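cron nightly-structures :: item 1 of 1
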Amino acid sequence: MTEGSTSIPDVDIAGSKRKQKPAKGHEITTKTIKTPPFSYACLELISEAITPIQLDEITVRSYITSALTQFLGLTGAAISIDILKVDGKECWIRVPREDLSPLIGAVGGWVGGGDPEGQVGWRVKASGNFLSTLVGNHGVEKIWHD
């Protein structure tokens, strides 16, 4: 030690000597979401039609409702579906977490459409509980198929 500085130990109530830890500026907390309320899916419409079919929200809802009704009856028609984005032949949807598996089964096996437009069906491009991971991985397949 130098002559000008002295070290005074901290004494607590019990009389034992120990150093106090410096106060931290921020307290870091984390929270893990184990069961998110919603799940997300990216679907692509596959068509036999010569002219490309442009999707809109009404067409997406009617095709998905038709698939769910065919697969699960009235129970499937009652599944809540939120259409987040429609872009060309792709659409992003949100469903309650517990309804994702029935939805994937319904749209994956559905074939619809009539004679003038040919048959149509859905291809499930991505599905999961967290939208951020799906969007981050969206388009990765284009790297290998371009």
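cron nightly-structures :: done
The beta strands are 38-47, 82-87, 90-96, 111-112, 120-128.
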